[in-house]
Design brief:
Helices cover 60% and strands 0% of the residues. It is mainly α and 178 residues long. Helix 1 runs antiparallel to helix 3, helix 3 packs across helix 4 and helix 5 packs antiparallel against helix 9. The chain is elongated, with a radius of gyration of 19 Å.
Length: 178
């Protein structure tokens, strides 16, 4: 790392993190990550904490710096964004599978979700809270229809931007001098 002077080029290190760390952090997240998809749990996982620790160290800011400010400065989304999008893609792909067994598993999980908040479908449905298209997404899951990815992604970005915008104290403002 010293021979390439990454310490002097944090943008390069952040690009490498986005290219390699985020995909590694997504491994299997469609299955294990649904518990972290609810609004307000963006930084609940130890993986998110580690990723933010790395980002703060790269920027050279205190560990007490707000997570949203660090992500905005890095131009990154919380890992939750990638995990949620990936879980929805998995759901959509399971609807179109050739595997009879997988289709039965999806149907069984759909039937289980009213009785167990710990099942995958219940956690996915719970995560839609706070999204503008929540009713559309819940209805799609409950009726076994695909969730429109483009709308969902825009909606998820809107929800996450809304949280960051509540931190107006760190939003830069322009001032003019006469």
């Amino acid at each position: 790392m010293r021979e390439h002077a990454f310490a002097d080029r944090p943008h390069t290190f952040l690009w490498l993190a986005k290219t390699y760390v985020i995909p590694a952090g997504m491994y299997g997240s469609q299955v294990w990550g649904t518990v972290f998809l609810q609004a307000g749990r963006e930084f609940s996982s130890s993986l998110s904490t580690l990723y933010l620790h790395l980002s703060k160290g790269t920027l050279g800011v205190k560990q007490s710096t707000t997570n949203w400010a660090v992500l905005r400065e890095c131009g990154h989304e919380p890992l939750q964004f990638y995990w949620f999008r990936s879980a929805v893609k998995l759901f959509n792909s399971m609807l179109n599978t050739n595997s009879v067994t997988l289709r039965r598993i999806v149907q069984a999980d759909l039937k289980l979700q009213p009785r167990s908040s710990a099942c995958w479908t219940a956690q996915l449905l719970s995560a839609f809270q706070g999204l503008r298209g929540r009713e559309l997404y819940v209805r799609a899951v409950q009726t076994g229809r695909a969730i429109p990815m483009q709308e969902f992604t825009a909606d998820l970005k809107h929800r996450m931007r809304g949280v960051g915008e509540t931190l107006s104290w760190w939003t830069p403002t322009r001032t003019t001098t006469n």
